[in-house]
Design brief:
The protein contains 7 helices and 11 strands. The chain has 271 residues and is an alpha/beta fold. The strands form 2 sheets. Strands 3-6-7-2-1-8-9-10-11 form a 9-stranded mixed beta sheet, sandwiched between helices. A two-stranded antiparallel sheet has the order 4-5. It is globular, with a radius of gyration of 17 Å.
């Protein structure tokens, strides 16, 4: 991994959010890449429950201030940054008053899904890419984790297909067991089409379940990692039918070797 750049785009990472499969791997994988001579950047949403003062977040003025158009509405993009204590890892936070301030991850305190989760996912995907463009940082691998990052592969393949910074980037999706029940806004396809994104894989989102959101991420990726022991057979079947390289490995003893070999052999040096 010497000299390789890996971008981690995730719904969560420790220590900013509680321990679970996603936050643990999003924390530990960059450490592995850094240890092996690579470079990493981590992006997550700036949810309202993240304590800015405790974690010493600060806004990066030169990266903030852009407006992203989401379904014909101008939505300001705010970028904040913090360093994980004792690690050489910087975390970038995608923020917006409407979508993330005073918000939890996917549901409110009454466990009711946010009606605009579809727009939050679109905003997050575009916000990450636009920030990477400003940083002029060309990743070799873009590794996405969690529902809110699941539109990244589609947007990279279609909306940003002519962006030279990502011309050689490979996309990896991790799939986990802890799925969200319920559906996204039924208008999600039309909101994506507003960005002039057209792709045959979008048909699957006519049934706007979170399961299908993960499926569209798989279908537009160069590799898939099943990071939990129990994932739905339908995910395995899609990857197999499209002949996408896969790895079955979560956070366990020996994960460093398995992930490094997968990155090198199946993604970067795929014949």
């Amino acid at each position: 991994m010497t000299g390789k750049k890996v971008l981690y785009v995730s719904s969560e990472v420790i220590p900013y959010l509680p321990n679970n499969d996603i936050s643990t791997l999003t924390y530990n994988l960059p450490k592995v890449v850094n240890k092996n001579g690579g470079q990493t950047r981590i992006f997550i949403p700036k949810y309202g429950l993240i304590n800015e003062r405790r974690h010493q977040l600060h806004e990066v003025i030169r990266l903030s201030g852009m407006n992203l158009i989401i379904d014909d509405l101008d939505m300001p993009l705010i970028i904040k940054v913090a360093s994980i204590p004792k690690e050489r890892m910087q975390v970038y936070f995608i923020d917006n008053e409407e979508y993330f301030k005073n918000r939890l991850l996917d549901s409110d305190k009454k466990k009711k899904l946010y009606k605009d989760n579809d727009e939050r996912a679109i905003f997050f995907a575009k916000g990450v890419v636009e920030t990477i463009k400003k940083l002029n940082w060309s990743p070799d691998i873009i590794h996405v984790h969690g529902w809110i990052a699941s539109l990244m592969p589609l947007y990279l393949k279609e909306y940003y297909k002519d962006e030279p910074l990502f011309a050689n980037s490979k996309v990896v999706t991790s799939i986990y067991e802890n799925e969200i029940e319920g559906k996204l806004n039924s208008e999600i396809v039309n909101k994506i089409k507003f960005d002039e994104v057209e792709n045959e894989t979008m048909k699957i989102l006519e049934d706007s379940s979170f399961e299908n959101l993960y499926k569209i991420s798989i279908m537009n990726s160069d590799g898939v990692i099943f990071a939990s022991d129990k994932v739905k057979d339908s995910y395995l079947d899609i990857a197999k039918s499209l002949k996408i390289p896969t790895l079955n490995c979560g956070f366990k003893e020996g994960f460093e070797k398995e992930y490094t070999e997968f990155y090198n052999d199946k993604i970067l040096n795929k014949q």
